[in-house]
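Reading a protein record of the kind used here takes only a little practice. Think of the row as the fold of the chain written in a discrete alphabet. A record is reproduced here so that you can trace the correspondence yourselves:
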Amino acid sequence: MLHLFGKKNKTAPGSAYDPGKEKPIIRASICSGEKTAGFKDKTTGAFREVMLIRNQRDLDRFMKEYGLDRIDTEY
């Protein structure tokens, strides 16, 4: 079956991240308010998107999946 408007390929939830190389980040748009959780490479600054954050439940799920106790927000 052909999917013309499928979801964008993203890193699967629960995939490992290396705290030595990556930093957990919430990217928030100041224009639309959209928030995306992911990991920022400490060396290159590249952002690896993991999931869209629509509400507190999504944020709690992201933090639980990766064992995080705090997370920074970038605008």
Q: What stands out?
A: The mean pLDDT is 86. The helical segments are 56-65.
